[in-house]
Amino acid sequence: QVQLVESGGGLVQAGGSLRLSCAASGRTFSDYHMGWFRQAPGKEREFVASISWSGGSTNYADSVKGRFTISRDNAKNTVYLQMNSLKPEDTAVYYCAARTLRATTFGSWGQGTQVTVSS
Length: 119
Description:
This protein has about 120 residues and is mostly beta strands. The protein contains no helices and 11 strands. A hairpin with a 4-residue loop joins strand 7 (about 70-75) and strand 8 (about 80-85).
């Protein structure tokens, strides 16, 4: 399995921005589609965004469209989540995940990074 380590979380005021990073190791990074998920206190984990192995295809949850951008750098084995116009409801632990090209679900997960947006 690929190992994933997230970074970049923190405390930000509403309207501010953060960029999350997820560094992958252990396997060929371009063999994986990548995704970001989040889990707020008392809620189930939800999908945020995903990106194909080449970076040519992206998908977003409706709640973040137009505010968040997912990208990847295969030379650096890293996937990013640029978050702009943050809202208090974006507060959650954000998780990076990897899915092999043939898989239908994400099988590798990072430990998560906390994002807190104050009003």
